[in-house]
Amino acid sequence: METTGIVRRQTAERRRDALGRLIAERDVWVSTAHPDHGPHQVPLWFLWDGRAVWMCTSATSVTARNVRKEPRVRLALPDTFDVVLLQGEAECFLDQEVNEDAAEAFADKFGWDPRVEEESFVYVRLIPRTVRAWRGEPELRGRVIMRDGVWLDKATPRSCPSELSPRN
């Protein structure tokens, strides 16, 4: 692994960089598992609302079925040098029962509103319990930047004022 030139970031800087990527990026790898059939991984579009990740998938997809049976999920942003991993329990919301603010923000970001499709979709929300972030081997130590839903840098509040809360 090439580590030349990597300057080890402090927790607050890792958090800032991870949050910046969560706001700016559009794709995330979603890893779910069925209790009997094992792991499943797919890329999905996502929206970060300041507190949670919102994704959307067909109501009949393997991802939706897995989340309903086993809600523990891991998300990974698609960059193997600048790693951001999120873990937590996901929850599914039918497209007609999802939080209006989340659905509108998702539609605004992607120019696609699953609520108007003929096929039924679910929004999958994950509020992270653990977040890890690192760039190369020099940052492996200290890579956990959120534990038990609490950011470890203590520099800023846990949530942001633009949080969206579910109707349910």
What does this structure look like?
It holds the Pfam family PNPOx_N. Residues 28-134 form the Pyridoxamine 5'-phosphate oxidase N-terminal domain. Keywords: Oxidoreductase. This is Pyridoxamine 5'-phosphate oxidase N-terminal domain-containing protein. It comes from Streptomyces javensis. This protein is of the alpha+beta class. It has a single domain (11-151), classed as Pnp Oxidase, Chain A, CATH 2.30.110. Helices cover 20% and strands 38% of the residues. It has a six-stranded antiparallel beta barrel. Strand 7 (144-147) and strand 8 (150-151) form a beta hairpin. The protein is globular and about 50 Å long. It starts with 10 loop residues before the first helix and ends in a 17-residue tail after the last strand. Mean pLDDT is 91; it is low at 157-168.
Write the layout of secondary structure elements.
Elements: H1 11-24, E1 27-34, E2 38-48, E3 53-58, H2 62-69, E4 72-76, E5 82-94, H3 100-110, E6 121-135, E7 144-147, E8 150-151
| CATH class annotation | Mainly Beta
Number of strands: 8
N-C termini distance = 45 Å
- CATH H level, superfamily name: Electron Transport, Fmn-binding Protein, Chain A
Query: Over the alpha carbons, how many angstroms does the gyration radius reach?
Result: 16 Å
State the strand order across the main sheet: 1-2-3-6-5-4
Overall pLDDT: 91
Individual helix count: 3
Give the SSE string.
Answer: HEEEHEEHEEE
* Largest sheet composition: 6 strands, antiparallel, barrel
Please identify the structural class as seen in this structure: alpha+beta
The geometry reads as globular
Strand content: 35-45%
